[in-house]
Structure formats: structure tokens, C-alpha cells
Amino acid sequence: MNAMPPRPNRPVYLDNQATTRCDPRVVEAMLPFFTERYGNPHSVEHAMGQEAEAAVEAARAQVASLVGATSNEIIFTSGATESNNIAIKGAARFAARMGNERRRIVTVATEHKCVLESVTDLADEGFEPLFLPVRPDGLLDPDTLREALATPTLLVSVMAVNNEIGVVQDIPALAAITKDAGALFHSDIAQAAGKIPLELDRWRVDLASISGHKIYAPKGVGALYVRRRPRVRVHPLFSGGGQERGLRSGTLPAPLIVGLGEACRLAEAEMADEAPRIAGLRVRLLDQLTATLPEIRINGSLEARIPGNLNVTFPDVPAATLMARAPALCVSTGSACSSAEVEPSYVLRAIGLTDDEAARTLRIGIGRFTSPADIDYAASALAAAHAAA
């Protein structure tokens, strides 16, 4: 029987799809804007306000550079959930106000909850939601999208990287199909930004949502990409002072935005080296797990996947039992926003897992601060927890 390895001094964190540690360099960049350079970025009449405004605009350029956009296409928000709501509901409502008769809104069954709920909410306003299935590898078949677009469609929303199984959709191809059919294309890129190269402008994406805390920036800040040429029009969700081109009113949190900008700068500079290192750690973990538990199954395409994600179904033992037997290991059973639910993951159901299989599945997220020792501990702890069950 496998013995549980010695408990580490602090938890081993392998849940980087749920959230990431704020990079110390990001914290360092933010600190002065909490304590010394605390001006309101909208108070442009005086020096401290101008200083904060300049910092915000510098961050805007850093975000734009990471995703392949221009600065004036970046709108700051509180995170990807808000960005997804603004993009989907805002685009639909603006089009309806302008007399656009298209009512179909297309998305994918494995999208983040906030996208699924945003699309569902629009049914009450006369729109027609359509949720497309995915293949067993977690990817959307382009022909499935083409068939859906045979009916005139207003908007398509497909996430670039799934938050549970880590698969990477072919966004350039799907966006091209959508645009050729005359619809808008939105993508939730929260799990993709900083992990894979993005070129939103060249890919013909109209709207895209970004989250700070998925890329080593603080929680509570994100961004929405809104294409300028050709211009995409979106109705704001709420009223206020008209900040952020009138799309997102409210005083901008300069410290958080500075942190998001610095995180994007670091990601752009280091992605080429970081991705293969993280992919190597994933291979190391998978090799150790399969050596001990050859019956484990990987969910979703292993080829079209971000480097740091593994979604693994274990034989015989529920995931909750494994987690309880390895309390020093931080992994999850699925999306952090729905982890309190006892229901099996709808993403895993959508790719064909039974409820029993979904209940035996863990999501493992490797990140920037994961070490080889962390990987070795995780493999040993999971093997020991499984053997003890």
C-alpha cells in the first residue's frame, strides 16, 4: 500500500484554474497606488489625478498588447463575469434597439456559468438561446456551428479555453464561420490570456472577456475587448458617470488596474518560456499518476489543451474522498463558481461522463509558482489516498 508522503509545511496549491497567486511583482507595482499615488484617475484637473490616469492608460496598453488589440478597444471591468454579461446582454440589447430582427444567440453547453446564464436571461427579452453540444474531446465541431448559423444569428459566444477541462477551441476558425454568417463573435478568454498566444484583431473576434485573478493579478479587476474597426456597439448594463466610453460607469480602481496591466506585461514577456516549463510539470505528474494508477482517464483533448490543466477521472474512488484523505493538496472537482453544488459537473456530463465518473474526477491546475516538488507530492498523495480508500 502506498504510504502518504510527509505533510508539507504549507498546502500544495494545484488549483490555478480557480484562481492564481498574485505575482509579487504585480503587488509591488500596485502598492504605491494604494498609499502614495492614490489620486482618482478621473480627477484630471490636478497632478495626482493625472498621474493615476496615466497609470491606467499604461495598463490599458499592456492588456491590449497581450491579447492583440489596440488600447482604445479595452474597457476595464470587475472581472470576466461582468465582462461576459456586458458583452452578451449589451450587444443583444443594442442590436434590438437598432431594429435588428435577428434573435438567435448561440453558445456552447460547456461554457462558464455566467455565459450560460446571460444567454438564458435573454430569452425573457425575446431572444432565442441555442446551446450547442461538444464532441467527446470537449471541442466544438465547426460543422455544428455552421448548421446553427443557417438560421440568422445575432451573436455567437465560445470560450477560448474551458475552465474545467482546459481544452483550447479553434477560435480563429469559429470566428471566421460566425463572421461569414453575419453574426457577432464573443469569446471568454479568461483561461486563455497569458497561457496561449492571442490575436483578437486578426482573428476577427468582436468581443472578449478577461479576468485578472486568472493571470496572477488581483481579484476584482478584468477587462472587456470591444472591437473598434468595424465598430461593435454595446448597450451598458447600468447607468452612471459614463466612464469607459460609456460602457462601464464607476470610478476605476487604479491600483487593481495597474496590477492587471503588470500581470499582462509579465505574461507577454514570459509566456514563451513559462508554457513549456508548466507543460513539463504536467507530463511529470501524469507519468507518475499513470505509473501507479494506469486506469485513470484524462478528460478532453490532451493535444488541444493549455499546458497547466489536467482533468482526471480516477478508478473506483470518489474525488471527494481523495481530497479528504489528502488535505494538504489543493485541487478541485470542477468550476470554483459552482463547487458548492452537489450536482456533478455539467461540463463533464456534456463530454459523455456518467454521474458516477464525474464524481470520481479531479481538476488539477499547474501554474507559475508550481515546483517539481509540488508535483511529486501531489502524485504521491493522490496515489496513497486512492490506495487507502
For the secondary structure, the number of strands is 12
Estimate the strand proportion: 5-15%
The radius of gyration over CA amounts to 21 Å
Distance from N terminus to C terminus (CA atoms, Å) equals 11 Å
Strand order of the largest sheet: 2-8-7-6-5-3-4
The CATH topology of the largest domain, please? Aspartate Aminotransferase, domain 2
State mean pLDDT (0 to 100 scale): 96
Order of helices and strands: EHHEHEHEHEHEEEHEEHEHHEH
Give the low-pLDDT segments. none
The helix/strand class is alpha/beta
The total domain count is 2
Tally of individual helices: 11
Largest sheet: 7 strands, mixed
User: In CATH's first tier, which class of the largest domain applies?
Assistant: Alpha Beta
The helix content, as a percent range, equals 25-40%
User: What CATH architecture of the largest domain do you see?
Assistant: 3-Layer(aba) Sandwich
Q: What does the overall shape look like?
A: globular
CATH superfamily of the largest domain: Type I PLP-dependent aspartate aminotransferase-like (Major domain)
Give the topology.
Elements: E1 12-13, H1 24-35, H2 47-67, E2 74-77, H3 80-97, E3 104-108, H4 113-121, E4 128-132, H5 142-148, E5 153-157, H6 171-180, E6 184-188, E7 207-211, E8 222-226, H7 254-292, E9 297-298, E10 309-313, H8 319-325, E11 329-330, H9 346-350, H10 355-359, E12 361-365, H11 372-388
Parallel strand pairs: 1-11, 3-4, 3-5, 5-6, 6-7
Antiparallel strand pairs: 2-8, 7-8, 9-10, 10-12
Helix pairs in contact: 1-7, 2-7, 3-4, 7-11, 8-11
Structure description:
It is a single chain. The chain is of the alpha/beta class. It has two domains: 128 residues, Aspartate Aminotransferase, domain 1, CATH 3.90.1150.10; 243 residues, Aspartate Aminotransferase, domain 2, CATH 3.40.640.10. It contains eleven helices and twelve strands. The chain has a seven-stranded mixed β-sheet, sandwiched between helices. It has a three-stranded antiparallel β-sheet with strand order 9-10-12. Strand 5, helix 6 and strand 6 form a beta-alpha-beta unit. The longest helix is centred in the last third of the chain and has 39 residues. It is globular.
